[in-house]
Amino acid sequence: MIKKLAAFGGLMILLSIGLWYSEHQLSQTRGSYWEASPAFSYFSMTLRGEEGQLAIVDAPFNVKQQERYSWFFWKDPQSMFGKTFQVNGINWKSGKSHLLYEGAIGVPNRNIGGVSRAARAFSTFSLPTKGLWKLEAVVDGKLVGSIVVEVK
């Protein structure tokens, strides 16, 4: 009887350690806390992201609903045109990364000046689950920024 209790106690300790380690690994992947990136006005649009760096048109993100999204890149926009563009999505809860889109950044518009000078790209994708998602913008294989959105 004592051997069975000792074996059971040992099993419970191992399970506890395993659960702690799993949660610890997950928290390292997702960070301790995410919140949706801030929204801001840009001419007649509302964008979400970091003004002057990277943003996406602030549109609803509905689970499993394919939508078209417009992206803005302000950092050295003339050098961005024609480069490959991909969007990776990381789910906060699972920590799993998904390739959501692959394409290219559109042609330059030299008529745009001042603060409005931005490279633009369009992507179409859907997100498979509700919750917080980090959308990583990757240009020519380099991460240029990320935006956190809430999927409903």
Commentary on this structure:
The protein is α+β, with helices and mostly antiparallel strands and 152 residues long. It is 22% helix and 41% strand. The chain contains two helices and nine strands. The chain has helices at residues 2-30, 77-80, and strands spanning 39-42, 45-50, 54-57, 67-73, 84-91, 97-104, 119-125, 131-139, 142-151. Strands 1-2-3-4-7 form a five-stranded antiparallel beta sheet. Strands 6-5-8-9 form a four-stranded antiparallel beta sheet, with no helix packed on it. The longest helix has 29 residues, at 2-30. The chain is elongated, with a radius of gyration of 21 Å. 18% of the residues are buried. InterPro entries: DUF4871. This is DUF4871 domain-containing protein.
